[in-house]
Write a structure and sequence with these properties.
It is a single chain. Helix content is about 25%, strand content about 25%. With about 220 residues, the chain is α/β, with parallel strands linked by helices. It is elongated and about 75 Å long.
Length: about 220
Amino acid sequence: MGFRSTSAKEEILGRIRNANKLAGVPSEPYPIPRDYRTNRTRSTDELVDLLEDRLVDYKADVHIVKEADLPSTVADLCREHRFSTVGVAEGIDESIYSSVSADVEKDDRSTDPHKLGRFDAIITESHVSSAQTGTIYLDGSATNGRRALTLVPDCHLCIVREESIVYGVPEAIDRLNPEMPITLVSGPSATSDIELSRVEGVHGPRTLIVLIVRK
């Protein structure tokens, strides 16, 4: 069966190649333009506003902060939500969470993922964000955290820097390393049953807090 299928495929492709030769179609593939759907006119302010609008629509809690105010904002949010234990991605700068009153623990990638549930929340940065779709891309690097860290705890505090915000998906994909494990986040985890009853926190954090950092 497999041999016949392969032979049939080769025969069909051979006929197509012969037909192309008779028609004068070049054997080399045509160049594919890749300059579509890119941001040509939107300013940083417009991209930030668009991303915020999309994330709020997805029920994320969004805060626009200055770089200098990031540590105090993180500490205030942890206190407001009464987090007792907070996990942070291993590459996060200590100054970002130094004012947090809760117990803070850097993630050790060797830790059993089943034990990550002890964290009330986790703090990570992000690699790139698409404003058009309201999607945050995590690439599994030291500052973004391993995938399990961003899926098991109930709350995710995600830092998005303004220079990492692009307009559309093609621009976001262009910044990614295809060899890295990519996690896409568009609001808190949520699912609906056949009766459209929304349930949050099934496949990931129930609460997503996004800190968009302006220079």
